[in-house]
Each structure stands twice: as C-alpha cells, then as structure tokens.
Specification:
Chain lengths: ~425, ~140
C-alpha cells in the first residue's frame, strides 16, 4: 500500500507511540483489503465507552490507555492515548445512570461507562451516544470521506447523505481517530458506488414505516453485500422510513449503499444508478407474495401471544416517532405485565421531555430511554419471554441475543400489545 | 472421498496454519451472530446455529450484519475461543478487519468457491496465498 511521507512519519513514531500503533493497524488492515492507499478523513464514528467483560478486565489491569490500545488499536504496547486528531463521536453504548431503576443492567457497567465518558470526553470524543449520529448534528456532506461504524448509520450516510464510508469496526475507527486516515477502498471509490441489483416494487405500494422496513429486509436478502436499486410503487420516504429501510437491509444482508432513483442523491435515474442503460439488470420483483414471505420470516420466532415487552426506537427514534407513540398512548394504561420502552438519542429525549411527550408516555407506564438499546446492552425487563417491536432489525437480532420470542408489526399494533398484553398483529 | 486439492488466493493475514474445517454456506454475523465467550454461532436461522468454531479453520462466504463483526472476533481471540484460520469467499471491510484483529492466517479471492470445495471436517492447510484441502 502506498504511504505518503506524512503517513510514513506517523508509522515510524514521529507523532508518538499511539499514532504509530494506529498507523500499524491501518497498514495491516489496508493489506487485508488490498487497498492502494489511505484517504484523509475528519469524521469518525466509533465506540470506546461501551462496557464489556474484556474491557472491564483491561481497565482494571492498565486503565483506559490499556483498553484503548488493545481494543481500539489492536496493539499490545503500553501506550498513552493522545487527543483525538480529527472529530470523533461515540455511537450508542450501554445504559446510563438514569436507567438504573428501570433497566436490569449491571451497576458496574454503568459506573465503568461513566468513567469512560469522562476519560474520552477529556480526549475530545463527542459523546453522542446514539446509533443515529445523523439525527443529532453529525451530518457529513455529499462526497465527504468518513470512518463510521454502526451498519445502520453507515448505510444512511452512504445512501441518503451521499457521504463515503465503509462499514468500519472498533479498531479501524480507533486508528482513524488518531490519524485522520482510513483505507481508500470500497465505498470511497467512485467506481464502487453504482447499483448492482434492481428491485421493482409491484402490486402493494410501499408507503408505510412497516413496509419500508420489510422492503429493506427483502433488499438485503436479494443484494447481500451489494447495492440494491429500488424502483416501482414506492412513496416518497422520510428520514424515519429510510432509517428503518437501511437498518433492515444491513441486517438481512450486508448492504452499505443503495439508491432510490429520484430520491437519494447519487442516482437521478435508474440508468444513472447503474452507470448506463446497458448496465441495468433484470429486476427482482417485490410483490405481495414476497412481502408476505418477509413478514412471515420476521414473525417466525413468535408463538406465544402474551407480550411482556414492547420495544420501539430501533434505530434510535426521531422526535416525531416519540410524538406518534405518545399520541397513541395518551390516556391509556399499559397492561400490568407489559413494559414499553422507546429508545432515543439523549439529545432528542431532551426535546421529547420539553415537548411533553415523555410525560404522556410515562403516565401510560411507558419509558423513553437514551444511550443504548436492549440488544447493545443485553438487557430487557426481567422475565421477558415475548417481545413486540416495529423494527425489522430488532425482530431479527433480539431473539438471538436474549433468547426470547419476537413479534414484528406496526407502531399501532405494538402499542395495542402494550396496552392489552396480547399480540394481535397481522399483515394488511 | 480422499486426496487433496490446492486453491490459490490472496493473503489477508499472512501465516501458516492447519486444522479441521468448519464450513458455513451462509454469511456469518458477528454481533448478534456469535457468542464470543463460547465461540458459538447463535443466530437462530443460521445453518450452524449452536456450532462451536473454536480451534477450527472457519470457511465462510462473507461477513454480514453489524459493524461489531471485527470487535466480536477480536474478543474471541482475547477469550481463547477464536478460530485458528479463516478462508473468506468474498472480503469486506468487516471480515478483513475481523481477520486482522483475530490475528489468524486468512485468505480470500480463491480460484474456486471455498464453500463448495471444502466440507466441514476436511483437513485444511492455509499457507499464505494457498489453501491445501485434504478431503475426509
């Protein structure tokens, strides 16, 4: 891999041991990718503060410097963490102190994370604490090279914003934060940003939040790690619908970039999405039968209709999603055996508090929680056996992570399940 | 069936290792797909649900899902539950970084589909840019 003189100086230790270790990781990683060179970035979204058993052990052994060296730089050296070289934010992590009486999450993790926030804040990490940095002020521009983790954020940045990032990991974002560099490979290059699979929506129009999520789950299955292009009978989506669509496509497949001609920025037409008219492939049809198959897949883990737990806000909810849930819960009361949590970025929870939505939800017995989610923190209400969600991503992952049953449906069905304690969903 | 087959590819992580193959025909998830404490695949819909990859040469077509992929495989190294090598059908940022931080010999871009040529239980030798498969 070609290195500039500046990068060679970093590798050779001119900027200190930690930067040298970061450059060593980037060189090993660039070799693994067969990348030709690195590119300059100044927008990193990674994770440093999320508690884990390994991290707790490393911090006990050698403090946060040790934990950062091993986990965020993949280095065995004894290093001191320098200030972040480029703007860097912390994605979603564990639950915070205000969740202690609500979420069964170890107090030791809460303490470890608070300590981590203080340490990394001093080193210049912006603690956004959300899987949706683009909802709380980190909005890269079209064409901007970034180093982001979090598959649902990566697909949003590439597809909706037209920024350029691969689906980075903990060590590559750690190395990027100290160098402002990342391998110039994959989604960073023009020639790798074209569509590969055409999906035509026919029959039942995709125009609801639920349908956008199901279409995303289908698109991930069709395209795998490639780039689906969506045409046909779809409405103009909003931020929340594309947030759901992308999270689902990144879950069922490994999609990091898609185009919706006329809507997303890099493809005005189907032909442009594929580079030329001749390159447009035959379409995979997403019709009523395919829609039903996705719905049944997402609901195949459910058998008992007694719902103990309703989870909303994956990826983290917008203020408007919180408002909608509050509207449905206004004047209602949750079933005695059922809990309802809405996950949101802390910055947006403040807005929901201020707008009165949180109070409405809490009067009904529900909660608006920040920073984390049950999947990240492996924490659901005690005794949960069956949960319901409006998120295709959580319906896919949470049964594996917590060993519980899942129902996937609309926001209205989820709120009804929370109020009655019973799942009564169906595809309409 | 016996005899051996040699595949040629591109080195992802340099090194040599030999051992028993565990072959997945489906992509593998890291976060939400494996339990790094036990080295076991936990995705309910997966063909290898409940199967342990510790000490095996993991042969798989690609990585899917969360960007936690590399971190979870790094944790298998730190927990002593890691595979000893990786044969990757199609490389991506997730699997490339995952192989790097697992620090095991890894190879990709082979001249035949490794998930078809190699079967679970076959004896596999990864030597930088070649894979020698002895059928069992």
């Amino acid at each position: 891999m070609f290195l500039t003189d500046e990068e060679k100086r970093m590798r050779d230790g001119a900027e200190g041991d930690a930067v040298a270790a970061a450059m060593d990781l980037l060189i090993r990683y660039g070799y693994a990718l067969d990348a030709e060179r690195l590119c300059d970035i100044r927008n990193v979204a990674g994770t440093m503060t999320q508690p884990s058993p390994v991290k707790a052990r490393l911090v006990a052994e050698g403090g946060w410097d040790k934990a950062f060296a091993v986990i965020n730089l993949d280095s065995d050296l004894d290093l001191t963490v320098p200030p972040m070289r480029v703007p860097t934010c912390q994605l979603q992590h564990g639950f915070g102190p205000d969740s202690v009486d609500i979420v069964p999450y170890p107090a030791a993790n809460v303490a470890l994370q608070s300590d981590a926030e203080a340490f990394y804040g001093r080193h210049g990490v912006n603690i956004l604490a959300t899987c949706t940095p683009y909802q709380v002020g980190n909005l890269p521009l079209r064409g901007e090279h970034c180093a982001w983790m979090e598959s649902s954020a990566v697909i949003y940045a590439n597809s909706v914003l037209g920024a350029r990032t691969n689906c980075e990991g903990i060590a590559s974002t750690g190395a990027a934060s100290l160098t402002g560099k990342i391998p110039c490979w994959g989604n960073h290059l023009d020639e790798n940003r074209l569509g590969t699979h055409l999906i035509s929506v026919e029959g039942h129009a995709v125009e609801s939040f639920q349908d956008w999520g199901m279409l995303g789950y289908f698109a991930g299955g069709v395209a795998g790690e490639d780039h689906p292009v969506i045409t046909g009978s779809v409405s103009r989506p909003d931020l929340t619908e594309l947030k759901h669509f992308g999270a689902a496509a990144a879950t069922s497949g490994g999609v990091e970039l898609y185009h919706i001609p006329g809507i997303t920025p890099e493809a005005a037409t189907v032909e442009a999405a594929f580079g030329s008219a001749a390159a447009v492939p035959a379409a995979a049809v997403y019709g009523p039968a395919e829609r039903r198959a996705v719905y049944e897949t997402l609901n195949e883990i459910g058998s008992s209709t007694d719902v103990d737990f309703v989870l909303l806000g994956c990826p983290h909810a917008s203020v408007d999603q919180i408002r909608q849930a509050a509207g449905l819960l206004d004047g209602k009361r949750l079933s005695a055996g059922t809990e309802l949590w809405i996950m949101a970025p802390r910055a947006l929870k403040v807005m929901a508090d201020r707008s009165g939505y949180t109070a409405v939800i809490e009067r009904a017995g529900g909660r608006v929680l920040a920073d984390s989610c049950p999947a990240m923190s492996r924490a659901a209400p005690a005794g949960t056996r069956v949960f319901a969600t409006d998120s295709a991503k959580q319906a896919h992952y949470l049964p594996a992570i917590l060993g519980i049953e899942a129902w996937f449906g609309t926001l209205e069905e989820c709120v009804a399940a929370a109020v009655t304690g019973r799942w009564n969903g169906g595809l309409h | 069936m016996s005899g051996s087959v040699i595949l040629h590819g591109r080195t992802v992580v340099p090194g040599s290792v030999e051992g028993e193959a565990l072959v997945s025909h489906e992509p593998i998830s890291g976060w939400g797909g494996i339990d790094p404490a036990r080295g076991v695949i936990i995705e309910p819909r997966h063909e290898l649900f409940g199967v342990c990859f510790t000490g095996k040469i993991l042969v798989f077509p690609s990585a899917k899902g969360s960007s936690g992929w590399s971190g979870f495989f790094q944790t298998t190294r730190l927990s002593g539950t890691a595979p000893i090598g990786m044969v990757i059908g199609r490389i991506s940022a997730k699997s490339a970084l995952g192989a790097v931080v697992t620090r095991v010999p890894a190879i990709t871009d082979l001249d035949a589909d490794p998930c078809s040529v190699i079967a679970t239980g076959d004896w596999v030798l990864i030597d930088n840019s070649t894979v020698e498969v002895t059928k069992r």
